[in-house]
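Lab notebook, bench 4. We co-purified these components, and the gel suggests they stay together. Before we commit to crystallization screens, I want a quick structural picture of the whole thing.
Request: model the full complex, all chains together.
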Amino acid sequence: MHFIDVPLDHLLKKSNVFRLVSNLQPYCAAKELTYVNSLRQFAKGAIDVRFIVDAESSSTRAAVSSRRKRKPQSGYEVRRSDFASLKDSEFSRYSKSRWDALTIYMVISSPFLTFC
Amino acid sequence: MSTMSTLDFIPHSLKRRKVGVEKPSSTFEPQYSTGSSPSKPLIQTASELAEVTPQMGPPNQKLKKEKQVIKLSWEFAFLVWLALSDYWIWADGDLRRRIETSEGESTVDAVDNEGDLAEDEKESRDKSDEQGCTFLIYVPPYV
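Here is the predicted assembly.
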C-alpha cells in the first residue's frame, strides 16, 4: 500500500486536524521538529519517525536547474509501528455503527485557548 | 597640510571621543547653588550605555522571544496520531466507503455516487469547521 509512510510535512499542511488548530497557541508557532520531538518522546512505540534524505539533492546546480521543478523529497516521514498487524486486522470488516462508536469529535470551545 | 596627515588625524580623534567620556567644558556645566548635585553621572562609559540601551527598548520585545519557546507535550504527538488516522481513511477508498455507508446500503451504490459523496463530505466538513468542530475516525491505539 502506498500510504504506509506519510510525509509529516504533508500532514501538517493538508490534514484537517492541523488546519483546525492552526490558529491556536502553541500549534501555530510549532515547527515540524516540535512534532518530531514529541513523537519520539511520547509515542515511541506507536509511531515510527524517520528522516528521508533526497539523493538527488546533492547533485550539481546545473543538473538541478536543468531538471524539471519538483517538490523536495527529503523530510520526516511517519507511520504506525503496528501497521503490519493492522493490515490484516478486523478493521476492514467493521460496520458503520462500529465506526460511529469509534468516532471522536474535536471541539474548539475552551476559554483557555489563545489564538495567534 | 597634506592629505595623509588629515586622514590620520580623523580616526584618531573620533576614537578618543567615543571611548572616553570627557567632562563637558565648564561653559556647559550646570551651576548648582547647593551641594545637591549628583556625585557621578548615571552613565559614565560607553560600555555602561550599551548595557542600559536594551532595557530602554520596547517592553514586549523580551516577552515575544519567550513566547517562541514551545513546551513539548504529548498533545503534539496526539495530533499527529489523529492526522495519521484521518489520512489513512482518506487514502483507503474502500475503508472510507465502508465507514460512510450504512449497513443496509450496498457498496455499489456508494461507488456510483462517489462524486456526490465527496461533495457531501466536503460540505459537511466545511460546515463543521465553521462550527468549530470536525469529525475524525479514531483507529484504536497500539497496545
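The CA atoms of residues 12 and 31 of chain A lie 9 Å apart. Worth comparing against the SEC data before the next meeting. Chain A is about 35% helix and 15% strand.
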